[in-house]
């Protein structure tokens, strides 16, 4: 088994949240971010900024920040392989149950803490998913999102709801 396979299996397991906690603890000791870690954070922040746009055109530009063979997972055991599957999921998510007849849901990220160590970027904070026409939901939707960045693209992303 090669190093890449080990890494992907490690993060595919449900223990990815515990691994993220280890990264957060090690970074909390005050180590300065490397230029590569700063660049990895910038990729993740660019993804988030794009996803906050109120149109589905944002999905066409996901390839700027996400690898074609991305692995995408969440705490509810949803797992997608490949950018086309992720785009399809997001299309359905933003359109909602009525297929977008009344407009699109919007998402806003309000991350309170960001940690990086090597290729791993962990963000902790709130996700606000607002239905068409509002209102913005209360600040109770806490998430921990673990990203793995390689060559300037997100190759893995895992979203854990903390509430």
What is the CA-CA span between the terminal residues? 36 Å
> What's the order of the H and E elements?
HHHEEHEEEE
Query: What CATH architecture label applies?
Result: Roll
Tell me about the biggest sheet? 6 strands, mixed
Into which percentage range does the β-strand content fall?
25-35%
What is the CATH topology descriptor?
A: Nuclear Transport Factor 2, Chain: A
Explain what this protein looks like in three dimensions.
This protein has 163 residues and is an alpha+beta fold. The chain has one domain: Nuclear Transport Factor 2, Chain: A. Helix content is 32%, strand content 33%. It is built from four helices and six strands. It is globular, with a radius of gyration of 16 Å.
What is this structure, in a nutshell?
The protein has helices at 3-12, 16-27, 35-51, 83-95, and strands spanning 66-74, 79-81, 106-117, 120-130, 142-150, 153-161. With 163 residues, the chain is of the alpha+beta class. The chain has one domain (3-161): Nuclear Transport Factor 2, Chain: A (Roll).
